[in-house]
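Hello forum,

I keep getting stuck at the same step: I have a sequence, I want structure tokens, and every attempt I make locally crashes halfway through. Rather than fight my setup again tonight, could one of you with a working pipeline run this one for me? It's a single chain of 287 residues.
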Amino acid sequence: MNKIYWLASYPKSGNTWVRIFLTNYLGEEEQPADINHLKGGPIASDREVFDRWAGVEASDLTFDEIADLRPHVYQQMALHIEHPLYLKVHDACVRNSEGDLLFPPDVTGGVLYLIRNPLDVAVSYAHHGGRPLEKAVEGMCEPNGYMFENPERLSPQLPQRLLSWGGHVRSWVDESGMPVTVIRYEDMLAYTEESFERIVHALKLDLDHERFVKAIKFSSFHGSQDQERQGGFKEKTMRADTLFFRQGRAGNWRSELPEELANRIMVTQRDVMRRFGYLDEHDNPIF
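Reply #2:
Ran it on my machine without issues. Output:
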């Protein structure tokens, strides 16, 4: 049985960059992969995939009923796939009403968890959703936060339980019971080859140095940004007020995030920020 590899992250934490790299690395083409045709599989919360494998439409179910069926959906997918799947996941790794993890360990080949400074996440997430910074920060600090486009209409994605930013991190790293490779977005920027080599190993892929270097080159932020400018990007939301590939830097929050909102994140998410190197011993931001 082929396995599923979870590319897990809180939204706007580098997941798409990894998927672009992976498409270039697996494709072995002589030009950069089309950002609108990424390989590896759909997002794990894809409604169409759920409907097909569950045998019932999610629109006829409650949130709890959907969550109860999701582990079985992934188990069925794993039984029928002909190659490993690399599924993007924004859900927290929580248990459903039957006590089962949404993402079953028995079909898991590995977990790659991408983490980014929540101060930068807040700014990027606000632009991505076309909503005020206050709302983005409120959601990141909400212990039982959810992500859904509009509860009153049908969305291409299932509702996704995020928890708070720190709760999301802990759900995967501490509570999933699965081996997890954690990669910081800031290290992907500063130590690109080392970080992506760790990603290749985490996904149990053979490391071909020539192909690896080319894939990194083909996955550059500016290259993806140019593609989006020329042909758009289907994962950009209709509400987004900027490009999906907007800045791609660390520390951009310093010029965009009001002090009171930054302080709210640092206070409520302090322990996890300290643990992963986003606050120093005096609770000063590092990036």
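The radius of gyration is 18 Å. If your local run keeps crashing, start a new thread with the error log.
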